[in-house]
Amino acid sequence: MGLWPSVWSLLLLLVAHQQVRSSESPISLTCEPPTCRYSGLRFATPSDTASLSIIFDSDYYSHVTFENSSLSAIPQTVFAKSSGVETFNASGCDIYELLPKTFRHAVDLKYLYLDNNRLRKTYGSMFLGARSLELLSLSKNQLETIDPQTFRGISYVQEIDFSGNLLRTLPDLFFVDKPKLKKLSLADNFLQELKKETFGEMTALQELDLSGNMLRTLVAGTFDGPWQLEQLLLQNNRLEVIEATAFEHLVKLRGLNLSNNNLKVLPATVFNSMGVLRELELQQNYLSHLDSATFEENLRLVMINLDNNTIATLQPALIQNLTDLQRFSIEYNQLQELDVQLFAHSTDLKRLWLTGNFLRHINPGTFDTLEQLEDLYLAGNLLSSRSFERL
What we know:
The longest helix has 13 residues, at about 5-15. The model is unreliable at about 1-25 (pLDDT under 50). The radius of gyration is 27 Å and the shape is elongated. The chain has a domain at about 315-390: Ribonuclease Inhibitor (Leucine-rich repeat, LRR (right-handed beta-alpha superhelix)). Helices cover about 5% and strands about 15% of the residues. It is mainly beta. InterPro entries: Leu-rich_rpt, Leu-rich_rpt_typical-subtyp, LRR_dom_sf, LRR_TM_domain-containing.
């Protein structure tokens, strides 16, 4: 602990004199293992950052953070030879460019956080040298384009976050040679289409977030590559068309979110390949009808959300095979009547939402089989009579 007094004295000196420092006064900070944490530092000029040096013990030193500091460049000494740095966090700084060879000696780097900076583009081999990188976060920057060779040399990365940028297109075979990539977020960008080649080589991917973009169509073959997907998020887009075989290779998918889109119709077989699907969200679309075979192959479903559509009728065959179903929500639609056989096989159903429809009465026996039901929501209907003999 002997180093801490000098570190704190230096930090106090930096804060007290932040307005008078110049690029002619090099800044040297000494860190105590395992973490070097400098948050909220303000530099008088960008060149102050370039002259920043870090002194460390390579046997113990592994984490560096400059969160919420005016760091316009990554100090070259952070990734000096044999530095041993495993985590580098420069979130909320002022970085607008990563200089070539920044990571050439970052052989031990595993976690790199560059969120909420001012990066506008990437370039080929940008992270070359960081061969052990597992997580890369570039969310909330100003990225408009991505070089196809950006990730050359980091074959073992498992998670990449590009959310909250300005991306409109993605290069073909963007993530080629990424056999370990399991989680990818492209949420909250401006993507308008997905090419068949975009995810073609992502065979290990398990989670894909495409929410908050401007997608209108999902064509056949879009997700042929990432056949191990377990979670697919497509909410808050502008989807109007989903081709019948768009999801045909997603045999391991467990969660699918298509809420808040412009869907008016779904092909009857669009979910057929999803034999282990557990949760399906279709709320806030314009669906007026669902074919009775829509969920025919989704026998493992435990949750379906159809809120805020325009569905007037539910055919009993729609959910008759869903014996694992526990949560079913169809609030704020146009239901006028419930078929007495609709829930005949829903013996595990625990929560049922029917709020905000046009139901005038409940036929006797409609809920007779729902012995596990815990919550039933019927507010905002036109009910004049009720039959709850078994509830």
